[in-house]
Design a protein that fits this description.
This protein is α+β, with helices and mostly antiparallel strands. The chain is built from four helices and nine strands; from the N terminus they run βαβαβββββαββα. A hairpin with a 2-residue loop joins strand 8 and strand 9 (119-129). The protein is globular.
Length: 158
C-alpha cells in the first residue's frame, strides 16, 4: 500500500466526488474482474464510480454499485450494469483491508479505473468521511490562496 498517487496508464473513469467527501488515508491498486464486453465499454469511458463502494466479504473484496453501460455492439449476453465485481488483490492486502475497515469510520472507496499495460486496474482508497466543517475549511483555504494570488498579481502589474 502506498500513501501517494499511483503510477497510472490511461485513466478511463474517475470518482470526482471522492476526494471532496473523504479524507484519503491510503491507496492501493487492484485488478478488476470483468466479463465480456465490459472492457470495451470502459475503454469508451462509459462507466461511473459515483455511488460505488467496496466491501470485504468471505475473504474477497467486492465493488458494489459501479455502473458500466452495456457495450453498444455487444450481444444479449451483456452482463447487468450494476452487478458486484470482484477485485483482485493478494491475501495479505485483503487481510490488511479487513483490519483497516474494522476501524470505526473507515471505508473503502474507488478513486479511478485505468489501464495499466493493457489490464484494467482500480485505484482503491481506505478513507474516512469528511464532516461539513472540514469541507468548509477546504473552501476557505482555497479562497485565501486565490486572494493571495490576486494580490501578488496586482502588485506585479504595478
Amino acid at each position: 500500500m502506498s500513501r501517494g498517487r499511483l503510477v497510472k496508464g490511461k485513466v478511463l473513469i474517475t470518482n470526482r466526488s471522492a476526494r471532496r467527501d473523504y479524507h484519503v488515508l491510503e491507496t492501493l491498486e487492484a485488478g478488476l474482474e470483468l466479463k465480456g464486453a465490459e472492457v470495451k465499454s470502459l475503454r469508451q469511458g462509459k462507466g461511473s464510480l459515483a455511488a460505488s463502494y467496496a466491501v470485504v466479504a468471505d475473504g474477497e473484496v467486492w465493488i458494489r454499485d459501479m455502473h458500466i453501460t452495456p457495450y453498444d455492439h455487444g450481444s444479449i449476453f451483456n452482463p447487468p450494469e450494476k452487478r458486484p465485481r470482484r477485485l483482485l488483490l493478494h491475501k495479505r492486502e485483503i487481510r490488511r483491508l479487513i483490519g483497516q475497515t474494522a476501524i470505526k469510520g473507515h471505508t473503502l472507496i474507488p478513486l479511478s479505473v485505468y489501464l495499466s499495460r493493457g489490464l484494467v486496474k482500480l485505484e482503491l482508497a481506505v478513507a474516512q468521511g469528511k464532516k461539513l466543517y472540514d469541507k468548509r475549511e477546504v473552501l476557505k483555504k482555497r479562497e485565501a490562496r486565490r486572494e493571495m494570488a490576486r494580490a501578488a498579481e496586482a502588485r506585479r502589474r504595478g
